[in-house]
User: What shape does this take?
Amino acid sequence: MEGKLQTEKRTRDYIAVDLGAGSGRVVVGRFGEAHVDFEELHRFSNNPRHHDGHERWNVGELLDGIRAGLAALPDGGRDVISIGVDTWGVDYGLLDTRKRLIEDPICYRDSRTDGIVEYVHRLISRDELFRITGLQTLPLNTIYQLVAQREAREWPPTVAHLLMMPDIVHHYLCGELAGEQTMASTTQLASATTREWAPEVFERLGLPFEVMPPLMKPGSAIGKLRSDLQRTLGVPPIGVVVPATHDTASAVVGAPLQNDWAYISSGTWSLVGVETREPLLTEAVARENLTNEGGFDGTNRLCNNIMGLWILESCRRVWADNGTLIDYQTLAEELRAAPARRAFIVPDMPRFFNPSNMPDEVRGFLRDSGQEVPDDPAWLARVILESLALRYGSIIRRIERVTGRAIGGIQIIGGGAQNSFLNQATADATNRVVQAGPVEATAFGNLMVQAIADGRFTDVTEARKFLARHVPVIHSEPSEQMEWAEARERYAQLETEFGF
Assistant: This one.
């Protein structure tokens, strides 16, 4: 179970560094014979700051947080076998010939990609790009960020290497320059079939192929903790193993999926999808704007990226700035009493990506679409969460259409699995059984890949079965189906009206 790491004689421990687009943490875990031990050593904030004309990640603060976590290892980390890092996708950093980070990486929410998608598709069509990479078109993808940086003439002349965010941390830990396939699959610069960089894309766009790192499979050992870090932190030469470095790929490893179930990795973003053995590169998949991302052990994740709890969290920040701090428990109690299914938004509309005032943006959409406008935070929160659940249902149906495969239930994983209202709304909106948990799926998945590499588990199937036996989940059954059927029709009309 999640909790305090138990003390055992000469155990084999693994460290997961899990960096999200709001916070990061260092955890140490162990898979015993009949239990899972899990301890959070250190948690720290991770928020972009405006610097040198862009929204940037503060890599120095991230590394400080990771060092603090390693310094807190029980018994000086004497039983730790390996460490691995996972992060959000698409963002990258540039290094010089001495392998030093030139500048802090720019955040995917920066406005530099405004208008760049159309320019890129004049050089390589959307259809051709999908056939090669299998990815849905999102302005935040690495491909558009790179072209935007070049077109703005902000490409530093000393660039020798490009590393994605987890690769930057792995380089700091062990000195190696290596990429990883699941993270590369988020960039729209890698082949969906080979899971290697796609040189034809770089050539068509005039991007420098020579700066890209070699790509490793999840579970590959790439080195040992640097000797200076060992001395400074008082830890042994811990191995560095690349997990599934894209946090969603790790989360799906850590999801105890049943056959023919979908997953929802619920957090700042919500990723709704299914595992497949091969990428699906059909016209139908492209038309539905679904995406193919790499998974552990050569699997594919057919999914869709949805603007998740970011919308609600952005509202809460505005309310707090205006003097109304609403904790989740209070909000959960109040929104259950708010009017049900009265108005909806389409969560993936660009206007919700990074507005200056999210509550005003949500109300503005409701006015523009001729719907009721909530007059209090709880009702607005209910509109957002019900809309998110209906969007999940829309994507589930699209996946069923393109795969010809019925989805029997949904596993919700990640931090959003703690939102009981959203869990029930998802069951209701999709008319499917929902199981919520584990909350720590991303960290578990990171640890599980390291444990597989170490021989603790033979494969991901065995690891998932072990996790399913020892980590509890919360069960939700669909209800009020007549009311939700009417809500699905109204929501579908909204998606059609606004081109989704």
